[in-house]
Amino acid sequence: MTQALYQNKNIARLYGLFFIATFLAYGFGYGILDGLLHGDAGNVQFVKPDLTFILCVIAMVIVHSLLNFGLLTIMFRVIEPFSPLLSLGFLGLGIMSTVALLVGGIALMLMGSATLETPAIAQMLYDANFYLYQTGMTLWGVGGLLLCAVLWRTMLVPRIFAIWGMLGYSIFIVGTLSEFFQSGLGVMLSLPGGFFEIGLSIWLIAKGFNQNPNAPIGHQAASSMA
């Protein structure tokens, strides 16, 4: 008899490790890039890095994208038997979010060759990164709501995580949308959702998924026909 993915604790641990690693990869890479940018009355200044630095940052962006695609694939395969439609929405939104962040990261890296010679283009690239980031994070938050809906329905993890995630991602989405209007609230409003993701990752690494969740849709249909 084939073991369901949620019953494999190594799969749960891998997802948790991937989730934490994406935080480190994107946060560290973006932090280095953003640290080179200094706003002065709304203008962007840039200290041009050497080729080695640029290649290192490119590697960070690629690593983040690969990790993101990996964790999305893992969770999709775990929850798809329980709710195919919500799972597909979660996967699709997650992929679109990752692509938006990837393109935004590329735009920010291109500033290394554009800023000193053409400030207007550099500012445009900086703005493109900003709006792509907010768009990507909004999509990620909506996908997170779909994930939490499945977690609530299935009880693959304690329902407190589903409730926490629903609240956290809802607040997070408000923050990302408000950033389109330069609210400055995005970072603060991202904390509940961020703590949820870290908490869920730690739980899955330590405990794994519930070994006796609510039955997948196919099993429920078979039971009702019996």
TrEMBL record:
Pfam families: DUF4386 (PF14329)
Signal peptide boundaries: none
Keyword annotations of the record: Membrane, Transmembrane, Transmembrane helix
Transmembrane region(s): 12-32, 52-76, 88-111, 131-152, 161-181, 187-206
Protein origin, superkingdom: Bacteria
Residues forming coiled coils: none
Protein name: Uncharacterized protein DUF4386
Source organism phylogeny: Bacteria, Pseudomonadati, Pseudomonadota, Alphaproteobacteria, Hyphomicrobiales
